[in-house]
Design goal:
The mean pLDDT is 94. This protein has a domain of 106 residues. The longest helix is centred in the middle third of the chain and has 23 residues. Helix 3 packs antiparallel against helix 4 and helix 5 packs across helix 6. The chain contains 6 helices and no strands.
Length: 159
């Protein structure tokens, strides 16, 4: 949707092998979404050393939309963003999160009991829980600068 995605790596890998190349080098793909602006496109300003950037998720790989208007609207915006001459980072980001939230709401009942999802959460609990809380507070407070947050600026196990 308007930008390269993790799913594109399979196509790149196949092409690389086909032409006889042995290595693919990419910029860091850690989460850099701090302000939800084009400045978040800088790959070396990660907000997590563990979390991948949700910007590069391929929406159709998550699940099909159950509401057909969501599917039609997604396809319309995907087509428009893919036809742009250059990446509209902020528009891609805005729309990725719209459709990620739609799919989260749609798939939540499945996700909360899915053995693979539960195993991922369990095996990544050391960083995932604090990352999730940080992302929530960052979005709620409109900044990743926790020194500016009125509440929960200092992390404690009891927070």
């Amino acid at each position: 949707m308007g930008i390269g995605e993790y799913a594109d790596l399979k196509l790149l890998t196949d092409w690389t092998a086909r032409i006889g190349m042995n290595i693919i080098q990419v910029l860091p793909v850690n989460d850099t979404i701090a302000n939800k602006t084009w400045q978040d496109s800088y790959p070396y300003a990660a907000i997590s050393v563990f979390a991948l950037n949700p910007l590069y998720i391929n929406i159709p790989d998550i699940a099909p939309f159950k509401i057909k208007t969501n599917q039609r609207n997604y396809e319309k915006i995907r087509k428009a963003l893919n036809q742009l001459e250059s990446v509209d980072f902020e528009k891609v980001l805005e729309n990725k999160f719209i459709y990620l939230h739609i799919l989260f709401e749609q798939e939540y009942d499945h996700f909360k009991t899915d053995p693979a999802a539960l195993e991922f959460i369990k095996s990544n609990a050391e960083w995932l829980k604090t990352y999730a809380v940080f992302c929530h507070l960052k979005d709620k407070n409109g900044t990743c600068n926790f020194n500016l947050w009125p509440d929960y600026a200092t992390y404690t196990l009891m927070s």
